Backbone:
């Protein structure tokens, strides 16, 4: 499409499919204002916040990720796409948290040392809050001490760790091994996630479970919390 045609585009005149396609393009181009407007249009059209998140925003980031991998996009462009994605996530966050569910567990979540990717773990935070969990999100680049301090201070049931790089994912084992040495490993449910991980890796490092995505994280956390409550009730 020519620049003139882009300028003339009125997002609210597009049908749903065209608008989602346009959002993928706008994410790719890092256009925050357009993502802000389009997210609100989909909400006005009564789209579920979860569908906007997964279909329009996460769907768009998937394309960005593929082109980043293939050397078509570079770090500055991906950063702009990430910022545009966050603009949409900020609108959806309170809506996803609006379910009014009672607190069913407390989780500390953070990205491991050496890793600054935070979109995935922010998404997990939003979805978990929406499902009634209380979350302390300690951000990016966390050394083991930071995790230990946070789970203690927050009185967490669950520790969630995120890693997006093959070079940083082994750090999850450092955290778990330290907890084992301190004799506190079994006091917490440990869930891990991030694009390069898999179930086998989760088992190998001694986590309770690997979560493929935010929805799986919510379901897994609920299952483990139910088990914990049942064990407490039986003891
Ligand atoms: Co980065 N990056 N990046 N990057 N980046 C990847 C991860 C990469 C796969 C791109 C590629 O080559 N295709 C590649 C890693 C390759 C590898 O390790 N084998 C890569 C690289 C190489 C790098 C740099 C080294 C690039 C460079 O500098 N040369 C550098 C490293 C910086 C560092 O961390 N030290 C870097 C930098 C960046 C940006 C800063 C530009 C930016 C991050 C911005 C930000 O996060 N604020 C960025 C981005 C955006 C990406 C991609 C394109 C997208 C990641 C993302 O946000 N996905 C990514 C490509 C990709 O993953 N396909 C890539 C969307 C998000 C919703 O998905 O994070 O997977 P995800 O989270 C999911 C699940 O994994 C799961 O639930 C989430 C929601 O469904 N999940 C959890 C995640 N964490 C969880 C925790 C849980 C549970 C579930 O706990 C309970």
Residues:
């Amino acid at each position: 499409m020519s620049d003139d045609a882009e300028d003339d585009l009125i997002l609210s005149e597009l049908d749903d499919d065209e608008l989602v396609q346009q959002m993928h393009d706008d994410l790719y181009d890092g256009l925050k204002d357009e993502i802000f407007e389009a997210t609100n249009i989909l909400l006005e059209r009564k789209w579920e916040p979860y569908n906007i998140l997964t279909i329009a925003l996460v769907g768009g980031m998937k394309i960005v990720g593929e082109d980043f991998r293939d050397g078509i996009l570079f770090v500055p462009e991906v950063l702009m796409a990430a910022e545009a994605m966050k603009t949409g996530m900020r609108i959806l966050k309170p809506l996803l948290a609006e379910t009014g569910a009672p607190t069913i567990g407390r989780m500390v979540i953070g990205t491991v040392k050496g890793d600054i990717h935070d979109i995935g773990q922010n998404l997990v935070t939003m979805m978990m809050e929406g499902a009634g969990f209380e979350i302390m999100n300690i951000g990016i680049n966390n050394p083991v001490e930071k995790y230990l301090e946070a789970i203690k201070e927050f009185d967490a049931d669950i520790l969630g760790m995120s890693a997006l790089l093959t070079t940083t994912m082994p750090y999850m084992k450092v955290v778990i091994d330290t907890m084992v040495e301190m004799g506190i490993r079994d006091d917490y449910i440990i869930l891990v996630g991030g694009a390069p991980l898999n179930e086998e890796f989760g088992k190998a490092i001694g986590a309770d479970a690997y979560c493929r995505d935010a929805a799986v994280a919510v379901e897994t956390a609920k299952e483990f919390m139910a088990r914990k409550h049942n064990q407490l009730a039986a003891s």
